[in-house]
C-alpha cells in the first residue's frame, strides 16, 4: 500500500528482491512533470520500483478493540465486523497460502508485475502481542522473494511505541506503510460512526509515527451526515498540517448487515450524490500538499453487499470524472495548499497515549490463537 513519502522514506536500494531494478524517484513532483492532475499511487510505485507493483490483500484473522470490548463493542457503524468473529476466522487460510494464491491470480491478469506488497487489510492489524506481530509480518515479507513490502491497516489508538519501533525496523529493508483510519477531524462525526477514538488520538499517533522511515497514510471518509463542505475541507487541511505521506479517500457507503445499512434502508440517511462527491474530492485534493500520494479516490463494496450509493461501484468512471473536473478547472493537487505555521517535521513527539486496555493486548506475552500463522 505504501509508497513512503519521498520526504521521509529511507533509501530503498537495499530492498532484497529487486535491488538492481529499483529506480528511486528523485523528484518529489515527478507527477506534475508527467502532466498529471494528482499524485496517483500506481504511478508513484512504478517510478520508485521501475515497474508494476501490486498489492495483495491478506486477512490474517485479527479482530478489533472496537469490537471485542477493549474500547467498546459493536464496531464502527459502517463496518461489517461480523466477519471478525473467531468462529468465522477459523476457516481462513494461512497467510502464506493466501499470498501465494493471490499472487497466482494477479499473474494471470498482468504479465509485467515486478513485485508485491502484502496488505494486511481487514480489522485492526496491529492488535496482537508484539512478538506475534513480528512473526506474522516477517512471515509475509519472506514467504515470496517478490514481496517488497507491507501495508498495515489500523486505528489511531492502536499503535503503541512498541508497534512503531517494529515497523521502523522492518522499514529499513522494505516498503512499509501504516494506514490509519482517521476518517475525519470532527469528534462528533467520529462519535456518530462509533469509532471510540477521538481526533486527539490521531494526532498523538501521527506525531509519534512521522519520520520513522515508513509511510503514514490517512483514510478519510467524505459525505458523513452533518458534515458540510467546510468541515470536510478542515479534514483536508489536517493532512498537510500533520504531515501524512499518503491518503485514501472514500465516499461514505453503506453495506448490508451494518447499523449504517439499516438506517439507509429505513430512509433515515442520505448518501452523497455522485456529482457532489466528484467536486468535493477535487476541492480536497487541491488543499493537500502536492507530494502526498493519493492511493484511492473512492470506495466501494461487492454488489451483493452494497446498499447505497450504487454509483460508487463505477470506480473507473468516478476517477475519470474527477480528472475531468480538474481539467475543467485547470487545477492540480496542492493548488490551494497553505503550508502550516509549524512544519510537520518540527512538531514535537508526544508521549504514547495508547489506551491501557489496548496496550495490555499488545505489550504482553502470549499469542492470539486465531491468527493464521504457519
Ligand atoms: S476500527 Fe476498523 S476494523 Fe474496527 S470496527 Fe471500525 S472499521 Fe471495523
UniProtKB/TrEMBL annotation:
Cofactor(s) required, per the database record: [4Fe-4S] cluster
SUPFAM superfamilies xref list: Radical SAM enzymes
Key word Protein biosynthesis present: no
Biased composition annotated in UniProt, kind: Basic and acidic residues: 348-366
InterPro entries membership: ELP3, Elp3/MiaA/NifB-like_rSAM, Radical_SAM_C, rSAM, rSAM_horseshoe, rSAM_sf, YhcC-like
Domain of life according to the entry: Bacteria
Residue ranges annotated for the Radical SAM core domain, each copy included: 48-291
Keywords (A to Z) from UniProt: 4Fe-4S, Iron, Iron-sulfur, Metal-binding, S-adenosyl-L-methionine
Listed name of the protein: Radical SAM protein
Organism whose genome encodes this protein: Rhodopirellula islandica
